[in-house]
UniProtKB/TrEMBL annotation:
It comes from Lentzea roselyniae. Residues 119-154 form the SWIM-type domain. InterPro entries: Znf_SWIM. It holds the Pfam family SWIM. This is SWIM-type domain-containing protein. The keyword Zinc applies. Keywords: Metal-binding, Zinc, Zinc-finger.
Length: 252
C-alpha cells in the first residue's frame, strides 16, 4: 500500500508539534511562508477541526478543508528521495540495530538524521521544500487551508515517523523488507533472539551482551503487520548488534 489515510482531527487544543522532527517540519513551513498572519490563521484552522481526513502518499499530502460554506481541495507536495538516496539512507539505518528499534518504537534518532544528511539525504524539509496547492482564491503560499493541513501533519509525524518516510517515497512495509535484506547476512545464521518495540534500544553500549539472551515480544503488532515478520527483522538486527559488540566496532 503506497498511501495511508488518517481520520480527521476533531476540534482540539494542543501544541502544533511536540517531537523534535515534528517541530522541524513546522519550522520548514514557517520559514517558507511569506505571510505570518495567514500562518496564525492556518494554525487556528488546524485546531478548529475543519480539516477533513488526510491522505499521505509518496510526495503528497491531501485533505479537504471546510471554510464557511465551501470545501476546498488542498494539497502539499514534498520532494521525494531518489533510489540512490534511499539506498544511502537504508545503509545508514542497517548499520545500527538501535536505529531500527527506534523507528519501530516511533522515534526518529537525531544521529540517524544527521548521518543521512552527511550522505546527502535530507529527510526533513527545508525552506521551500513544502509546495502548497489549493483551489481557493488565495494567492498566498501557503494559504490558510494548506497551512492548516501542514500543521496537522506535524501531529501525524509526532505519532509515527514512518509518515515522514512515506512522504519521502517509501511505505513502511517496503522499508522494513529492504532493511531485512540488508542485515540478513548468510542464510542459516539467524539467532533465536526476539526484540520488541517495548525493549527497543536497550542493548548495552559496551561489549558483553550474552549471545543467547531471549527477549520476549511484549506488545501486539500494529494492525496490518505480521508479528513473525517484525520478529524476524529484529532477530536479524540483534544478531548484527552482537557481532559488532564482539568485534568492538560498535560506535559509542
Amino acid at each position: 500500500m503506497t498511501a495511508r489515510g488518517f481520520a480527521a482531527f476533531p476540534k482540539v487544543k494542543r501544541r502544533v508539534a511536540t517531537t523534535w522532527w515534528g517541530k522541524a517540519w513546522v519550522k520548514a513551513l514557517e520559514d517558507t511562508a511569506l505571510d505570518t498572519t495567514l500562518l496564525r490563521l492556518g494554525r487556528r484552522y488546524a485546531h478548529a477541526g475543519v480539516v477533513g481526513p488526510i491522505t499521505v502518499s509518496p510526495g503528497r499530502l491531501h485533505a479537504q478543508v471546510h471554510d464557511d460554506d465551501t470545501v476546498y481541495s488542498t494539497t502539499v507536495l514534498v520532494p521525494e528521495l531518489t533510489e540512490v538516496q534511499w539506498g544511502r539512507f537504508l545503509d545508514r539505518v542497517a548499520e545500527h540495530a538501535g536505529h531500527i528499534a527506534a523507528l519501530l518504537d516511533n522515534d526518529m534518532p537525531r544521529d540517524l538524521v544527521a548521518a543521512a544528511e552527511e550522505s546527502g539525504v535530507d529527510l526533513l524539509p527545508g525552506i521551500g521544500d513544502l509546495e502548497p496547492d489549493c483551489d481557493c482564491e488565495g494567492w498566498e503560499l501557503p494559504c490558510r487551508h494548506a497551512a492548516a493541513l501542514a500543521f496537522q501533519v506535524g501531529w501525524l509525524l509526532d505519532a509515527d515517523p514512518f509518515v515522514l518516510l512515506l512522504l519521502k517515497g517509501k511505505p513502511e512495509q517496503e522499508l522494513l523488507d529492504a532493511l531485512k535484506q540488508r542485515v540478513a547476512g548468510p542464510v542459516g545464521t539467524r539467532t533465536s533472539v526476539v526484540v520488541s518495540r517495548d525493549v527497543a534500544g536497550q542493548l548495552p553500549a559496551k561489549p558483553g551482551l550474552p549471545a543467547t539472551t531471549p527477549v520476549v515480544l511484549a506488545v501486539e503488532p500494529p494492525p496490518g503487520y505480521d508479528a513473525a515478520e517484525l520478529t524476524a527483522l529484529m532477530e536479524i538486527a540483534a544478531k548484527r548488534a552482537r557481532a559488532l559488540l564482539r568485534s568492538g566496532t560498535l560506535d559509542e
